[in-house]
Every structure is written in structure tokens, then in C-alpha cells.
Amino acid sequence: MAADAHDPLDREDAPFLTSSPESSASNRRTGDQDDEAELKHVYSVNEDDDDDVDERSGTQTIERIRFRFMVTLFAMILAFEVGIVMAHGPMTRIYESIACRQYYAEYDPRQIAADGQVPESLCKIKEVQTELAAVKGYKEFFDGVLSAFLAIPYGLLADRIGRKPIICLSIPAFALNTGIMLAVMWYSDIFPLRAVWASCLAWLLGGGPVVAFAIIWTMMSDVTPADERAAMFFRFGVVSMGADFASSAVSSWMMTWDPWLPLMIGWGIVLAGVLCAITLPETMHVSSARRTERSASVELAHLASENGDQKGAIQKEERQMHPDDSDVDSVEGDQLPFALRSAAKRPFLRRMYSRSRQYLTPYSFIFRNNQIILLLTAFLVYRLSRGSSWFLVQYISTRYKWTLAEANLFTSFKPALSIPLFLFILPALSRHLLRSMHTSKKDLQLARVSIICLCLGTLGIGLSPSIATLVPSLLVQTAGSGFLDLIRSLITTMVKQEETARLFTIIEILQAVGNVIASLSITTVFQLGLELGGSWIGLAWMMTSTAFALVGVAVWCVRLPPVVEGKREAEV
């Protein structure tokens, strides 16, 4: 797939990537590139032209590209959410049936029917459920580890060559991932069930969902003004919740016939949604096009100087911290400190150290503000909630003796309850709070209330002895489901526009690391709860509630920087 090529002045430099003159000089004129070319043309007019006409023309162009982008992106999110949620329940049931059949084939073959299947009621035993938890949990672990390692290089590439080429790599990756899982499940008499773990290798191409969603959030941020960002994230939340409800209900109904039917339909919808990436316009320069001609010219001049001096600045910094090769060679080996003497003997390690510094330098901006670090912890720990949700259907089915189809249908009502939260309650609270406080402070206050709801609701889920007590706990937890969108909106105001792609990459990396932690910890704790039995089956949710409490402490320690509040005052 050909990558978008941009002039060096129009991109953010990524030190560890070299720029070829050929790629800088080439300029593709496909349909999506024409949007970007037109956008640049609007904002590069002569100063003697009428300013009002230029401003109206530029605004119309931006709004046209933004509308096209948002329609496509909403279609992608809708297809992805519908497909993944529709496939989740059936995939769990197929995993369970395979693990159950393999268990009884070894210990009690008489329980296997003539069609090769075991009644679902016989699959709720501890041994089968423990194996099922291991397969699902460690699959998430391997996905998370690989995605975390790949997120940074793909994130830097997105800042260098554009968002669209990177997200388009997800198309073959998702196809390969689903193909591997399908082969293992369909030929379960040939492949062991744990072979589904190999599907994570598909994420080597494009970085997987971590990179894809980082690009999606970055593209949204590129075309959305800061004061509209929280509302936009809420709209995406409404789309996701509505899709979760509809697809879970339909999937549960189809599962009563055959779990393979909703699984194949769900995966087909996911692939169709990923294919929409082909139609996305490039958004890397949209935000800069919002500025006036004069400010844009100043910025380009600054970037020209900055790009010209960046390599020298990095080399100067390295010379200050470490002697260069000529210094090392001019000193006798026995006079060197041990570390420098070792470096002189092993230049490869010195080169690797220098390359690592260049690799990580673009991400150093997160350390200049302690409030950013506090907010980033929320993304790390929040994945524990997602980790426990992986097992929610299995938890309800095992603890309350329901079928997986019934449990899947029950959990579908949780996102349905979130729709009025995102559509009416949170926007109403936002409007009310904006009368007395700035946008960033409003987001912070709502985030604090949301984390309390998450903590209490999750604890209630783990302690609920019956469905009657589980329902109100789910309601309370649902009331906090806007937490991550609020934090995402708040943290975006604390960085520069040109740093947003790297910020969202860091966020997705932290969530990938959180996935790794959750997949190991939640799987282990859930298995322990299954071993202990009784009320201890909800041990994983008790642990998750404790983690939410720690995040609440971090969020309560956040103090908005004066720069952010000053920026908000100017906007108001």
C-alpha cells in the first residue's frame, strides 16, 4: 500500500525515521488527496485578497471534509462495535463447546452425543470453565503484548506520513486475524483450542486495534474544536452503546439456533467496517488549516527552522551527556571509567542507546506536566473493567446457572441503559456545570463522579448473590461509563495540537499494557474464584473495584494547569 507523502515542512519530524527526497517530492492526487490539496490551497492565498472571502471559503472546505470524515468514521465505529459484540457471545459458546467436548472425550466419552456435541448444562463444571477462562484471558494477553510493542513505531509513522496509510493496514490484518481463529475453531479436531492465540501474529501488520483506535481518536481530534471534543466523544459513546445493545440482542436470539451464524455475520460486519478506512480523507493537516494565513506562515517558518536544526540539537544533547567517538578514541582504555570503556569496546550498544534516545524523544512531552501523568493512570487501570467484562457473560452463566445465550441477552441491556446517560444526562449536566465553570473543570468534576459510580457498581457486581441484586449494581456501574471519554477530552486540552497523535498513541499503549495486566490478573483471579466457588466467584470484580478506587484517588489529585484554564477563558 502506497504511503502518503508530504512536504517536510508540513509534517512533524520523527527523528528515527529518515525522509527520502523522492517521497517528499511525490504528491498523489487521488480523491482523498484532492481534499487535502484543496484545503492547503484555500489557506495559501495571497494576503492582498479579500480576507472575509478567504475565511468563508476555507471554513466551507474544512466543514465539507469534516462532514465526510465524520460520516465515514461513524460508519466504521458502528460496524466495528456491532460486529465485535455480535461475535463475542457466540465465540465464547463455541470455545466452551470445544473445551467441553475435549474434556469429556478424555474423562467421560459417554456424555458426547451422536452429533459430537455435549449438552451445555454439562459444560458449567469447574474444569471446563477454568480452561475457557484461560483461553480467553491469555488470548487478550498476547494481543496486548504485541500491540503495545508495535504502537509507538506505528504512531510515529502516523505523525510522519499521515493517518490514513496506517489505518488502512488494518484491513489485511483483521482479515488474517479472523481467518486464523476461524480455522482453529472449525477444525477443532485438528488444532488444539489454544491455537487461537496465534491469531495475534496478524497484528504485526498495522499494529492491531491499539493502533487503529489511536488513529481514529487522532483523526477525530484533528477535525474537532477543543470545546466540542467532549460532546463528540459522547456521541461516539452513544453509537457504541446502541450498537452493543442491538447486536447483543440479535446475537443471543441467533445463538438459540446456531452460534456459528451470528459469529460469521459479526466478523463480516467488522471487515466491512474496516474497509471503510479506504474512503477516509487524510486529516493530518486539517487542524493547521484552521489557522489564519499569517499564523500558518509563521508556524511553517518555525517548522522549517526546527526541522533543519533537529538533528543537530539531538547530536548536541548526546555530546553533552556522553563523549563522542573521537573523545573515546583519544583516551587510553585503562583511563576510561568502566561504563565508557565497555561502550568503546561495544560500539553497537552505544549506537543502540543513541537510537533509543531518538526513538523516545518525541514522547518526552508527557513528563512536562504531572497532571498528564495522573490522568494517564486512568487509561491504564480502566482496562481492568474491560478485563472483567470479558468474563461477565461467563460469570452470570456459571454463578446463576443460566445458558450463555440467556446471559448474553441479559448483558445486552447494560449498554441500552448507557444510551440515555450519554444522550441526555451527561449533556444536561455539562450545560448546567458550564454556567459556573470552564469546560476543562466541568470535565474533571464529571470524571470524579463517574469513577465513584464505577467503583461502587463493580463492587456490587462481585458481591451480588442473585440477579435481583445484580441489576442495580449494573445500573450504578453504567452511570460511570462516561469516565474514559471525559478523561480523554480533558487530557487533550493539556497538549499541543501537533502532539495529539503521540498522546493518543501513548493512551492506546497504556490501555494495551492494561490489557496485558488485566488478561493475566483477571484471568488468574477469576480462575481462583471458580476454584473457591460460592460468593468468591465474583472475586475478580472485587479486585477491579479496588483498582477503580485507586484511580479515583489519582483523579482527585489532579489540579488543572493555569495554561489550560487560561486557554478556556479565552475560548469562552
TrEMBL record:
<feature type="transmembrane region" description="Helical">
    <location>
        <begin position="67"/>
        <end position="87"/>
    </location>
</feature>
<feature type="region of interest" description="Disordered">
    <location>
        <begin position="1"/>
        <end position="40"/>
    </location>
</feature>
<protein>
    <recommendedName>
        <fullName>MFS transporter</fullName>
    </recommendedName>
</protein>
<feature type="transmembrane region" description="Helical">
    <location>
        <begin position="166"/>
        <end position="188"/>
    </location>
</feature>
<feature type="transmembrane region" description="Helical">
    <location>
        <begin position="416"/>
        <end position="434"/>
    </location>
</feature>
<dbReference type="InterPro" id="IPR036259">
    <property type="entry name" value="MFS_trans_sf"/>
</dbReference>
<dbReference type="InterPro" id="IPR011701">
    <property type="entry name" value="MFS"/>
</dbReference>
<keyword id="KW-0812">Transmembrane</keyword>
<keyword id="KW-0472">Membrane</keyword>
<feature type="transmembrane region" description="Helical">
    <location>
        <begin position="232"/>
        <end position="254"/>
    </location>
</feature>
<feature type="transmembrane region" description="Helical">
    <location>
        <begin position="503"/>
        <end position="530"/>
    </location>
</feature>
<dbReference type="Pfam" id="PF07690">
    <property type="entry name" value="MFS_1"/>
</dbReference>
<feature type="transmembrane region" description="Helical">
    <location>
        <begin position="260"/>
        <end position="281"/>
    </location>
</feature>
<feature type="compositionally biased region" description="Basic and acidic residues">
    <location>
        <begin position="1"/>
        <end position="14"/>
    </location>
</feature>
<feature type="transmembrane region" description="Helical">
    <location>
        <begin position="536"/>
        <end position="558"/>
    </location>
</feature>
<feature type="transmembrane region" description="Helical">
    <location>
        <begin position="474"/>
        <end position="491"/>
    </location>
</feature>
<feature type="region of interest" description="Disordered">
    <location>
        <begin position="309"/>
        <end position="331"/>
    </location>
</feature>
<feature type="transmembrane region" description="Helical">
    <location>
        <begin position="141"/>
        <end position="159"/>
    </location>
</feature>
<feature type="compositionally biased region" description="Basic and acidic residues">
    <location>
        <begin position="314"/>
        <end position="325"/>
    </location>
</feature>
<keyword id="KW-1133">Transmembrane helix</keyword>
<feature type="transmembrane region" description="Helical">
    <location>
        <begin position="360"/>
        <end position="382"/>
    </location>
</feature>
<feature type="transmembrane region" description="Helical">
    <location>
        <begin position="194"/>
        <end position="220"/>
    </location>
</feature>
<feature type="transmembrane region" description="Helical">
    <location>
        <begin position="446"/>
        <end position="468"/>
    </location>
</feature>
<feature type="compositionally biased region" description="Polar residues">
    <location>
        <begin position="17"/>
        <end position="28"/>
    </location>
</feature>
<dbReference type="GO" id="GO:0022857">
    <property type="term" value="F:transmembrane transporter activity"/>
</dbReference>
<dbReference type="GO" id="GO:0016020">
    <property type="term" value="C:membrane"/>
</dbReference>
